[in-house]
Amino acid sequence: QKEVEQDPGPLSVPEGAIVSLNCTYSNSAFQYFMWYRQYSRKGPELLMYTYSSGNKEDGRFTAQVDKSSKYISLFIRDSQPSDSATYLCAIGYSSASKIIFGSGTRLSIRP
Amino acid sequence: GAGVSQSPSNKVTEKGKDVELRCDPISGHTALYWYRQSLGQGLEFLIYFQGNSAPDKSGLPSDRFSAERTGGSVSTLTIQRTQQEDSAVYLCASSSSALPEQFFGPGTRLTVL
Which of A18, B2, B14, B45 has the largest count of CB atoms under 10 Å? Predict the structure, then answer.
């Protein structure tokens, strides 16, 4: 069993839709939960990170963590064509340890 | 610039040749990571350096792969006797010890013919 599972997609939605991206993980010792965005031929860039259960909001993006279910989500409201990218969840044990990435979900927003 | 830089951006080599990939992390970052990303795939962890500690080499796929980090800064990933399956984008990232955020470089696209 992989430590982090993520649906690879691809996921295609119309502009303005709400997007839900999800990952599950297997080890309850994980403490840090992150979402990265990767545009084609670029390195990943951090969108959000959190270390507690619940929701964290940043503009159109909301990260949700449910530690009891070992489930994390990223919601994108009012999706834009510029949101088209691959989204990777990433999970770590502590701030100074390596993190484990999901396989990424390719998202396409149709104008 | 203030970001992570990698060189070369592209490398084409012949099977059996050795290659060296370079990473310049953000100044002051104590942690440095190497990942490999094959076409359409997620990030495969290769190796992790943290300060003066022994590196975590658990992700290196074979003994043809090695990495060094000199003076706690620049890192070089070396692949000996390259094979076609080594073709991928090699990404470097760095982070401070205080935060989990990793800052990625643009990657080196390696093609082994």
Answer: B45
B7 contacts chain A (CB < 8 A): no
Only one residue has tokens 């839900």, namely A20
Determine whether the interchain pair B97/A95 forms a contact, defined as Cβ–Cβ distance below 8 Å. yes
Rounded CA separation A77/A109 (Å) = 12
DSSP conformation letters of B28-70: T--EEEEEEE-TT--PEEEEEEETTSPPB-TT--STTEEEEEG
What CA–CA distance (Å, rounded) separates A21 from A35? 10
Q: What is the dihedral of CA A98, B87, A24, A95, to 10 degrees?
A: 10
d(CA A63, CA B109): 31
Q: What is the pLDDT of residue B67?
A: 96
Please give the full DSSP string across A36-71, using - where no structure is assigned. Answer: EEE-TTS--EEEEEESSSEEEEETTEEEEEETTTTE
- Closest chain B residue by Cα to residue A104: B42
Note whether A92 contacts B: Cβ–Cβ < 8 A: yes
